[in-house]
Amino acid sequence: MSTSRNVAVVVGSLRKESFNRKMANALIAMAPQPLAMSIVEIRDLPLFNQDLEADPTPEVAAFKESIEASDAVLFITPEYNRSMPGVLKNAIDIGSRPHGKNSWGGKPGAVVSVSPGKLSAFGANNALRQSLMAIDVPTMPQPEAYVGNAAKLFDDKGMLVDESTREFMQKFLAAFAKWIERFASR
After folding, report:
1. In order of start, what are the domains of the chain with their CATH numbers?
2. Phi/psi of residue 36, each to 5°?
3. Angle CA(41)–CA(88)–CA(129) in degrees, nearest 5?
C-alpha cells in the first residue's frame, strides 16, 4: 500500500463550528499512509436543476472534477429529521448527473455520522448508504462509524480529545485504507 490514495472528504454540514467538520479535520490529521485526504466543499453548489446540466456552473464543474480526481470518498454527516441533510443529498445528485456521467461511480466510500445526541445520526448514516448504492459507491460495510455525544469529544480549538473515539477512528481509517485497496486494481 505504498501508492498514495486521494480521498475526497464530503462534509454534510455547512455550519462553521460543525461537529462533522471538526471530525473531518481530525480524520484528515490522523489519516494513515497511503491516504491523502482533503475536504471537497459543497457549500457553493447550486440546487440541482436538470435544466442546467448542459451548461454547468463553474462550482458544479469544479466539484465534479474534484470527485473524479479522487480514488475514494469519505462522507461525514449529521442527521436532520432522521435522514441526511438536504445539502448533502444535493451534492450527491449533482455528482451523479447528467445521466451517464456519474462522477461517483465505482469509487469506494465510507460513512461517518456525527451527532451531539445519543443516537449518533444512525438514520442519516443509513439513508446515505442507501443513496450511495444507487450511485455505484461501494460502501465499506464494517466497521460502521456512528459517533454520538459529539459536544464532549472536541476541545475549544476543535481538536478531537476523546481518546476512545480517537482510537476507534484510527481503526476505522485503517479499515478504510484496506477497503480502498480492494478496488484500486479494478
Report:
1. 5-184 (3.40.50.360)
2. -115, 100
3. 120
**pLDDT tens-digit series, residues 105-142:** 999 999 999 999 888 899 999 999 999 999 999 999 99
83-99 confidence digits (pLDDT tens): 999 999 999 999 999 99
Rounded Cα distance, 120 and 126, in Å = 11
Residue 164 has φ and ψ, to the nearest 5°, of -65, -35
**Considering the entire predicted model, what is its pTM?**
0.96
Distances (CA, A) of 50 to 99, 101, 105: 10, 13, 19
In this structure, what are the phi and psi dihedrals at residue 108, rounded to the nearest 5 degrees?
-65, 145
Q: How far, in Å, CA of 140 to CA of 158, rounded?
A: 27
CA dihedral angle for residue 83, residue 150, residue 132, residue 1, rounded to 10 degrees: 180
